[in-house]
């Protein structure tokens, strides 16, 4: 065994309370290096009568490591434990105090989980596990009220630019809620709605007023009430890293300089605050001088923004916040933000915009979830032919091992957004590849999100081209693609196993881009078969049971001599299921 590859620490994603009675343990070993890992567990005060062993499951593997996992229900909410790792005839023992060839007497030097305090358990909103989100850029979704159109509004459906307007508003959303219900949507993520000079509204002037081009506060409240009546949750965008240069406190700084009472609300590096040769003398979002960065460590700034977060939850019964540029705001702020938001609505869903490994925000004191851009990148690289099945399995399994299970169950998965090219464009216009990607999205762990219009075939490159107007003329929509999305959404919503069940790759080989994976719980077992090639393929996998059916047609599908053989068209897929006898 390569002892240097062994890893476990009694915290974070390696040892955590999943619920008030259950502790999850994980261990890392070199890939294909050990046969078994056994968790040796008991109570430190009564080891002999509480001792029990759990053989850990190999839950995932990446290019270099295997990850082993076990779920433990300690008798007294506390746990003392060690690991016995075996390869062939050799066994070693992993303890907090080190690695040993002979098992030290318990419990000195063993790992400890001192006590499951319910207040410390990382709780995520249960409804987010069942949610299918739909991201709406309000300016481009639907123009329901021409009276509030900005000056110079262009005809609907024109070429989007960084600074043009098409008149989309909240009345347009209200008019089309039944369309979202028909699709199967039960949650909406709105990009910013508050007063702002831009079409995207990420440079906010007034955080407590709906932009008049969209409507007013009363209309937003009406929209949210209508959504709730139709079973749709609503999440708004919180832009708390920066504001607009027209934000009144920043205007005061521009006018009064160091004497402004708001001088410490921002990160001013040199007075007067100005932009010279394209670079501001104050910190900004990126290098955009029109978006000065807040000093969220300032107590007045913090209170102002926390009041905003609480105000909208109470005012419109908001269900969640998506946090823009979340990784550039200090952790102290987000810890207080979580307390304020969860106190106002314990079931509020908090999603941070972080584009990389986000564990430091996902240990229970800040976010519930993050926008899972690494998911989108890996999925689209795979279905665009950029890697084989083994590499894809390794990389997706590595993603699953980044976070505790409760986060994996609600991590915000999408295949594109307002910040990326459109999905159909990202797969080279090939609907077959799009469908494989969407099947994976809806049969994978986490909370799926659709960017408005992807379901009817909207294309587009990077910003601003991805922010095209929604197509409402049925003759111009891809209705076959719409029906496909609707079918997949319904399948996911119908079966809990596709939302919370175990995920595991069954077949993912070197040099072969075809994959088979499963989702399963105690009631139902799904297997998903994918041909990620441009040639017809027959995939095979051992299966003893003979009660499999096609999940989309209910047709019986029988193995032959203990092997299931599934023939798939180029870039084809099939979803099979069987009910598990109790």
UniProtKB/TrEMBL annotation:
One of its GO terms (molecular function) is hydrolase activity, hydrolyzing O-glycosyl compounds. Keywords: Glycosidase, Hydrolase. Residues 135-492 form the Glycosyl hydrolase family 13 catalytic domain. One of its GO terms (biological process) is carbohydrate metabolic process. It comes from the Bacteria. Belongs to the glycosyl hydrolase 13 family. This is Alpha-glycosidase. It comes from Paenibacillus dendrobii.
């Amino acid at each position: 065994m390569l002892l240097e590859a062994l890893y476990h620490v009694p915290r974070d994603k390696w040892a955590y309370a999943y619920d008030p009675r259950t502790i999850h343990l994980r261990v890392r070993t070199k890939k294909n290096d050990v046969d078994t890992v056994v968790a040796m567990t008991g109570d430190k005060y009564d080891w002999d009568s509480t001792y029990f062993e759990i053989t850990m499951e190999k839950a995932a593997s990446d290019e270099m490591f295997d990850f082993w996992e076990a779920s433990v229900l300690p008798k007294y909410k506390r746990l003392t434990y060690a690991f016995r790792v075996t390869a062939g005839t050799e066994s070693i023992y992993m303890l907090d105090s080190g690695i040993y060839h002979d098992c030290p007497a318990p419990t000195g030097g063993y790992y400890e989980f001192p006590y499951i305090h319910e207040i410390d358990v990382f709780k995520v909103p249960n409804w987010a596990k069942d949610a299918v989100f739909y991201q709406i850029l309000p300016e481009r979704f639907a123009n329901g009220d021409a009276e509030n159109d900005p000056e110079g509004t262009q005809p609907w459906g024109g070429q989007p630019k960084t600074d043009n307007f098409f008149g989309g508003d909240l009345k347009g959303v209200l008019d089309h809620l039944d369309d979202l219900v028909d699709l199967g949507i039960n949650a909406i993520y709105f990009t910013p709605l508050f007063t702002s000079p831009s079409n995207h509204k990420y440079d906010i002037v007034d955080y407590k007023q709906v932009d008049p081009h969209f409507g007013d506060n009363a209309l937003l409240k009406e929209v949210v009430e209508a959504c709730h009546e139709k079973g749709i949750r609503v999440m708004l965008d919180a832009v708390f890293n920066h504001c607009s240069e027209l934000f009144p406190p920043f205007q005061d700084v521009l006018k009064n300089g160091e004497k402004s009472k708001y001088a410490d609300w921002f990160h001013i590096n040199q007075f007067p605050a100005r932009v010279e040769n394209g670079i501001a003398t104050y910190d900004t979002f990126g290098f955009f001088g029109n978006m000065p960065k807040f000093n969220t460590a300032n107590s007045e700034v913090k209170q102002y923004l926390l009041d905003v977060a609480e105000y909208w939850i109470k005012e419109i019964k908001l269900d969640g916040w998506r946090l823009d540029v979340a990784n550039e705001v200090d952790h102290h702020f987000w810890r207080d933000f979580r307390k304020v938001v969860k106190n106002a609505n314990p079931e509020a869903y908090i999603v941070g915009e972080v584009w990389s490994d986000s564990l430091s925000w996902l240990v229970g004191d800040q976010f519930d979830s993050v926008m899972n851009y690494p998911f989108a990148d890996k999925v689209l690289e795979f279905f665009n032919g950029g890697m084989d099945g083994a590499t894809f399995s390794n990389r997706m399994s590595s993603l699953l091992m980044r976070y505790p299970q409760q986060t994996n169950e609600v991590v915000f998965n999408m295949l594109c957004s307002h910040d990326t090219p459109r999905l159909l464009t990202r797969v080279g216009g090939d609907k077959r590849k799009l469908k494989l990607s969407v099947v994976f999205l809806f049969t994978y762990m986490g909370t799926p999100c659709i960017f408005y219009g992807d379901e009817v075939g909207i294309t587009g490159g990077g910003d601003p081209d991805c922010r095209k107007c929604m197509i409402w003329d049925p003759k111009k929509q891809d209705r076959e693609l719409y029906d496909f999305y609707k079918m997949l959404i319904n399948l996911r919503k119908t079966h809990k196993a596709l939302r919370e069940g175990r995920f595991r790759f069954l077949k993912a080989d070197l040099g072969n881009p075809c994959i088979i994976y499963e989702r399963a719980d105690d009631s139902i077992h799904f297997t998903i078969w994918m041909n990620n090639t441009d040639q017809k393929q027959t995939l095979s996998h051992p299966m003893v049971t003979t009660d499999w059916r096609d999940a989309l047609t209910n047709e019986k599908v029988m193995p032959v001599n203990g092997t299931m053989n599934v023939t798939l068209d180029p870039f084809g897929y099939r979803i099979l299921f069987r009910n598990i006898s109790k």
